[in-house]
Amino acid sequence: MVAMSESNMINAQTDESLKEAPLQEITTNVLIVGVGGQGVIMLSKVLAALCQEQGFDVKQSEVHGMAKRGGSVFSHVRFGKKVFSPTIPQGNADILVALEWAEGLRWLSYLNPEKGVFIADTQRIVPPFACRDRRRYATSGYVQESVEEVINQVPNSSAMDAVAMAKELGVPKAANTILLGALSTTLDFEVDNWKSIIARFVPPKTVEANLMAFDTGREWIDNFDKQTQLENSVTAVTSPLEIWPVEQNQAVVEINAAWCKSCDICVKFCPERCLALDSQQIATLIKPEACTGCRVCERLCPDFAINIHTPAVN
Ligand code: SF4
Ligand code: SF4
């Protein structure tokens, strides 16, 4: 375990450089980043509420103006005895939690270069403007750095496929809570306190699923081994737009109507104009024969309502 070992916990009793001041004198800076629809704000609200409940002065600031269109969302959470500014200066984040891979890399300069902890989801949501060419063999302007390269360069870092983990648990929308579980291992708060705050912030019928996701994130960190990650990470971030041979069969577009919130993003951005909203305002495939399997709709859907199945390549 590297990033979240006890010696890396953001706690005045365990961090040598902070020992001289009592815990409450220290301002702890947590930066949470991602894109619209991933639950960045929920995470930061849980953390801020927990800190407040524990008697800290808390300042939280967030930007989520373009969230609905897949834009960046970030939230600064600062807590301590007295916090004067709501924003974290560059190079001063004690913890950077990234719910989306490129967003994490974009904010790395805010992480304390020596003792900052980086926790990232390897999920990639390609921003609309990075999809300049959506033909079958096209590439996008999405960042090319592999997990291996980043993990090698950032001392206290770990990268997980939280979306896959959440899907495996049967709660695909709880990837953010898995990240929260990972974050919780870096801060000196009781697990029960985290859980009672989570239960207050998520919809009542999802409490159990979210608590399970939270535990999964904690367990993943407990079992995290940097060397294993480095050995396995080459495949964790693949090429921006996977390609498949023209002669193979048609891609299958699977749309989960229950998750579609009618935002229209997939309809607007499908390069082949294959999609439309139906009379119920749910995304539907209207031109299956034209679909190239480019995955643009899958990657842009903020609610993970689309899955593209492309034929296996022999
Ligand atoms: S399926 Fe399309 S319309 Fe529905 S939420 Fe996803 S991007 Fe929006
Ligand atoms: S439906 Fe989705 S996968 Fe098919 S062409 Fe449109 S954006 Fe690409």
Written description of the protein model:
The chain contains ten helices and ten strands. It is globular. Helix 3 links the parallel strand 5 and strand 6 (156-160). The protein is an alpha/beta fold and 314 residues long. The protein has two domains: 6-235, Pyruvate-ferredoxin oxidoreductase, PFOR, domain III (Pyruvate-ferredoxin Oxidoreductase, domain 3, 3-Layer(aba) Sandwich), CATH 3.40.920.10; 252-309, Alpha-Beta Plaits, CATH 3.30.70.20. 28% of the residues lie in helices and 17% in strands. A six-stranded mixed beta sheet has the order 2-3-1-4-5-6, sandwiched between helices. A two-stranded antiparallel sheet has the order 7-10. The site of one iron/sulfur cluster has 13 residues, from helix 9.
| Structural domain count | 2
The helix tally amounts to: 10
Give the overall shape: globular
CATH architecture of the largest domain: 3-Layer(aba) Sandwich
CATH class of the largest domain: Alpha Beta
Q: Specify the structural class.
A: alpha/beta
Which ligands, by name, code or SMILES, are bound?
A: iron/sulfur cluster
Biggest sheet layout: 6 strands, mixed
Q: What is the oligomeric state here?
A: single chain
Helicity level, as a percent range?
Answer: 25-40%
What fraction of residues sit in β-strands?
15-25%
